[in-house]
Amino acid sequence: MKYIISTFLISLSISAFSQKKILDHADVDLWKTIKNRSISNDGNFVMYSLEKGEKDSHLKIKNAKSNLVFEHERGEKGKFTYHSDFALFTIKAWKDSVSDMKRRKVKKDRLPKDSLGIYNLNDGSLVKIGNIKSYKVPEKWSSHIAYQLEEISAKKDTTKNSDKEIEKEEKKDKKKKKSKKVDKDNGYHLVVRNLLSKKEDTIKFVTDYIFAKEGRQLSFVTTGTDSIMKAGVYVFDFENDQLSQVYEAEKSKYYQLSFSESGERLGFVVDNDTTKAYVRPNELFLWQKGASLAEKLLDGVSSPKGYRVSPDGAIIFSKDETKVYFGLATPAIVQDTLLNDDEIVNVEVWTYDEPRLYTVQELQLKRDQEKAYETVIHLKDGKLVQLGSKEYPNVRLGNEGNAPYALVNNPKPYQLESQWTGMRSSDYALVNVATGETKKVLTALGGAVRLSPEGKYAYGYSPVDSTWFAYGVASGKRIDLTKGKLFYNELNDSPRHPSSYSVAGWTEKDKALLIYDRYDIWKFDPDTGSSEKLTEGRANKVTYRYVQLDDEKRFMDTNEKWLFTTFDETSKHSGYYEYNPKTTKGKQLVSGPYSYSRPIKAQMGEHVIFTRQSFQEFPNIRISNLNFKKQIVVSDANPQQKEYNWGTSELVKWTSLDGKELTGMLIKPENFDPNKKYPMIVNFYEKSSNGLFRHRAPSFGRSTINYSFYTSRGYLIFNPDVHYRIGYPGESALNCVIPGITSLLEKGFVDKDNIGVQGHSWGGYQIAYLVTKTDIFKAAESGAPVPNMISAYGGIRWGTGLSRQFQYEHTQSRLGGTPWEYPARYIENSPIFNIDKINTPLLVMHNDADGHVPWYQGIEFFVSLRRLGKPSWFLNYNGEPHWPLKFQNRKDFNLRMAQFFDHYLKAAPKPVWMKHGVPAIEKGINQGYELLDDIGEN
Questions:
Q1: 30-152+182-300 belongs to CATH 2.70.98
Q2: Has this prediction a pTM greater than 0.90?
Q3: How many helices and strands in the chain, by DSSP H and E?
Q4: Phi and psi of 737, rounded to 5°?
Q5: Basic and acidic residues bias: where (predicted)?
Q6: What's the per-residue H, E or C state across 17-41?
Q7: CA geometry: angle at 609 spanning 603 and 615, to 5°?
Q8: Most exposed residue of 336, 500, 577, 649, measured as fewest CB within 10 angstroms of its CB?
Q9: Which of 693, 715, 692 is closest to 705 using CA atoms?
C-alpha cells in the first residue's frame, strides 16, 4: 500500500510540475520591480513601490511585522518625515491614459499633472493634493512641508448663467489687462502646510525655496504680487511664526539660495541688472538671524581683480558657521553681437599639444562656462581668501569646512598624456583657509587624494607605486603605508598599474585609517605606518567589507560594533559579520548561498531593511535587527514566479588551453533532465561567476539575453570567466571559453550541434573574434563589436569625447602599446582580417548614437560579412546609444534575438525579417515578426 501511495504522489508531483508555464515575451509585463525602498527613522514602517512591467507603480507601507498599513495605486518616490509621523509620495497619472492622450495629440501642458499624497501614520488619514510641481521636506524636523503648484485656476460658478451670459463674461475677461501668469520666470505658487493642524498658507510666484536642515526656517524667493508681498527674498521662522523680507528688488534674478544647517544664516547671489549685458554684475549677500536685512558681502567692484561672483558656485557654510564658501568666476567670453550669421566663422581648431582633446572640450563646454573657483569669507572679520585658482582649480574642503587647510589640485599638466595612458594625474597642494598661503605637497599623482574627516591628513592610493599613503598636514611628512604589501589588485590582467581595493574609512579624530586588501581589513596608524589585521579572511578566501549604517557619520566609531559583509570567493556565499573594535573579536551573523544587499538602518532605531537573492529567489525586502536572527519578509513582489518553469545556477570548473584553473556559471532549466540534450547559449563578458546567486527576473534587457527567460524555454546558459594575457585578448577568450564548452559537452547533456553565443561591447568583440577561429557555434549575436582594432584605436568615445587610445594601450583591450609598436598584435586581434573564416550566422546590433564604441565598427563588420555572402543581419536602433534604452526598442531587440536563436538552435520557423528584412519604406510600420511557416512561406 505504501508503494502504491508513494507512486501516486510522485505521479501527482510530476503532473503538477509538468503543468508549469513557459515564459513568453508577454509574461515579462507580469513581473514587478521594487523601487525606492526606505525605512522610517523609528524603524516601525517600511515603504516601497512595485513597478509592474515598466508601467504604473503601486506604493505600499508595511509595519515592522510586515502587516500592510497603507497602499496606493500609482504611488512612487515615498519619503518619511523626520519623526516618522507622515509618509509623503507622488501620485502619477495612469501611464496608459497619458499614452492615449498623446495619441490624441493632447498638448503637453494639458496632460495630467502629478499629485502629492500625505498619509498620517498615526491616525491613518490621507490627504491628496493635485497639480504638484515639486515638494520639499525638512531633513531634521517635521512639522511642516512645502509644495509648489503648477497652477491655480479659479473655477467659475456657471450653474446660474446661460450660455450667452458665460460667453459675455469670457469676452469681458479677454478685454481686461492680462494678469500675471505662473511660469518659470514669474514663479509658481508655494503652499506651506502644517502637517498636524493641516493649516496652509499660499505664497504666490515663488521661483525658489528651501528649508534649513536643522533650524525651523524656510526661505523663498518671489517675484512679488502687490505692495504687501514685494519681490525679493524672505525667511519664515516657524518658531515664532514670523515672516521677514530680508532682501527687496524688482526684476532681479537669484541663485544658490542656501541656509546654514542651523538656519541662522542664509546666503544667495543676486543679479539686479535688467539690461541684456553679457557680463552679469552678480552680488553675494548674507543674512544672519536677528538682522532685518541681508548684507552685501561682495560685488563686481570688491571682487578680486579678474574675477566676478559666480551664479553657479554653490554657497556652503562651514559646520561651525564661521565661514561661508562660494564661487568666483573669470569674466565670460562674449561674442560680437553685431555680426550676422554669414559673418561668423564656425571652424574647429584642434591643436596637437592642447591639454584636452577638442571633442572633450565640446562636451565640457557648459562645465567650463560655469566654472567657479572656491572662495571663502570669514564672517567674523569679513576677510576674503580665494582657495581655488587657475593654478589649482579644484578644491576639497576639510572637516565640513572647519579645517584650517583645504586640498587643491591641478590635472592640467597631465591631461594630454591621459589621452593614451588613461590615468588622471594631478599636482596637489594645501592652501591655508585663513591666509591663502599655498604649499605644493604631491606631484603627478595618478589616484584620487582626499582629506581625512577632520582634515589632519591628505591620503590616497598611488597606482604607480601600488601604495596607500598618508600625508600629515601639520607635519608635512608623507608615510607610505602599504609599500611592498599586497594592497593592490592581485588579479590585475591589464597593461596598467593595478588598482586598489579601496578603504573602509577613518576612526574618530583621524586616529587610524582602515584599508582593504583582497580579503581583509587592516588598521593603519597614519603617523608611523604600523598596522594591525582585523579579520582573518585570506586563509579561507573570504572577503570582508565594512557597511556604513549612518550616512551622516564621517568616521568609524570605535565605541560601537561594526557590521561587515562577507563573500566566500570559493563557494560564492555571502553574509553579514559583526566586529567589536573594543575586543577585536567578531562573529558571523548569517551566511549562505545567497547574495545579500547593503542594509539600510533606521536612524533612530535598531531595525534594518535588506534583501537576499539567488537565481531562484527574488530579492524581496526583509526587516530585522542587527543580529539578523529573526528576519521577516516584507514584500512579495512576484508570487507568480512559482507558476513558471524557472532555472537553477551552479558553479562549473575546467582548465584553460594554457593550463589555468577556471570557473564559470551554468544555468539549467528547472525541469532539467541529465539524460536529455539541450541547446546552449554561451554568454560572457570578463569574469561573472561572483554573480552566481544573482536573481534575474524576466525583463527586456538592453544588451544581453535574459537568463530566466531562456532557461524557462529549455535552454542551458553557460557564462565562463575569462583570464587575459596582455597583448592577446582574443586568444585569451578562445583559450578560456572553448575548453569550458567542451568540458560541458563531455557531461552529455549539451546538444553539440545547437550551441549559440551572445555578448555585447567587449563581449561582442570577443564573439567576433571567436567565430573567426571556431565553428562550434551554430549562431551568434554580437552587440557593438570592434572588428578592427586599428581603426578603433583612432576613434573617439563620443559619449565623453575621449580618444580610444588609452583603452588599447592600457585598459580593457589590453594590447599594451600602439599600432606602430605592436602592429602584429593589432592585426592578430582584429576579426576583420580573418572574417572570411567565419561560418557562423551572425546577428549584429550597433546603434548610430553609440557614445562608447563608434558605430562604424559594426558597419565594418556587417558590410564585410555581406561582401562575403555570410548569413548576417544588422540592427540599428536610430538615435539610441551603446544599448537601446527605449522600452519599445529593448522589447524589439529581445524578440528578434529570441527568434534568431530559436530558428538556429531549436529549428523554429524563420521570421519574415530574417528572410526579407524590413525595407526602409516599411520601417516603423511592419516589423516582420511573423513566422514564415505560419503565413505559408518557407
A1: no
A2: yes
A3: 15, 54
A4: -75, -45
A5: 158-172
A6: HHCCECCCHHHHHHCEEEEEEEECC
A7: 155
A8: 336
A9: 715
